[in-house]
Amino acid sequence: MSYDFDRVIERRGTDSAKWGYFPEDVLPMWVADMDFASPQPIIDALARRVEHGVFGYGLESQPLKRALVERMMRLYGWEIRPEEILFLPGLVSGLNVVSRAIGDRGDGVLINTPVYGPFLTAPINQHRTLQSAPLRVRSIGRRLHYELNMEGLAEAIQPQTRLFLLCNPHNPVGRAYTREELSEIAAFCEAHDLVICSDEIHCDLLLDDTRHIPIASLAPEIAQRTITLMAPSKTFNIPGLGASFAIIQNPTLRKQVEGAMAGITPHVNILGMVAAEAAYTQCDPWLEALRSYLTANRNFAVAFLEQHLPNVRFTCPEATYLLWVDLREVVDGGKPADFLLRKAKLAVNDGAWFGEGGEGFVRLNFGCPRRTLEEGLQRMAAALNGASD
Length: 389
Known about the structure:
By secondary structure, this protein is of the alpha/beta class. The chain has helices at residues 17-20, 40-52, 62-76, 91-101, 118-125, 150-156, 179-191, 220-223, 251-261, 270-282, 284-308, 336-344, 370-385; strands spanning 27-28, 85-88, 108-113, 129-134, 136-140, 143-147, 161-167, 195-199, 226-230, 244-248, 313-315, 322-326, 346-347, 349-350, 361-365. The strands form 3 sheets. A 7-stranded mixed sheet has the order 2-10-9-8-7-3-4, sandwiched between helices.
């Protein structure tokens, strides 16, 4: 079956955060949702549920739990049980719930930066102490490659540190960590008796022949200290339906997280459950085609930057649909995203939002039709090649 990812869908006027936040002359390539229609099996499943016409309180979907158990084994050789799955209304809720559940007020939460903004805010929201260490970055030509900085983590950790927040695949730098890198993280967390909360929401958005390895799948003893957060939202473009889940194999940790959720965290709504079940049981062919398209988009963007913006450095992501671009040599002072918004009518995320190591960078979303991507890159090049503030 063929899928038309080149089709441009009008999203203005649909209460889209991505397309409705900025004026109509601005091309939005910022917030991480894609401009593709969701897979037809999801649309059909939602239509059938809506046609039923009754939207009362729902139960957790047991077929969805069984599908997730099967999927973890099939993709990763990771054996989990249905009772080890907790449903959540979103990944950001998950980061906050886990930050609340682990440790006490004032205890430390360790992160690597730059990283997805809620990693910086969730610990603070829950009255924890944020402790951060920058990733190590090296240039291969004009391409940026980010690596773990274990020495930095060792310097940042404190006696009261209780939790490590891991982002894999990494947002915004696009790394999919290797088994060896994950083993280093696991050994570090074992040595310091840290709980690991692993954000793996982009685990299906793999480019080229990249493989994803859940850190909890490394060994049973690692699984016992790990809370894994996943969701169909980014992969199948259904973030507005608010469906995600945590896999927690340690019953004590699971009870702590359930306690932190009690009375505060809402259940996943019935349409979110329906969409997630369809996504994980019927949409693998669509996902395979999506990965190929996103890989081609990534290659197009990298080739464009190499040809048209000689003073710009950038990542070549292994996963996600997010490009991390270093504009420090071409935009003097201020926030480069503001510059591009003014000069190019292009909306991207400013790197400062991702913490230390993000200043002077922007994050660009290439999860869109190729002609939209080309227009955005052309706007960027025109503005930067004549850059003046």
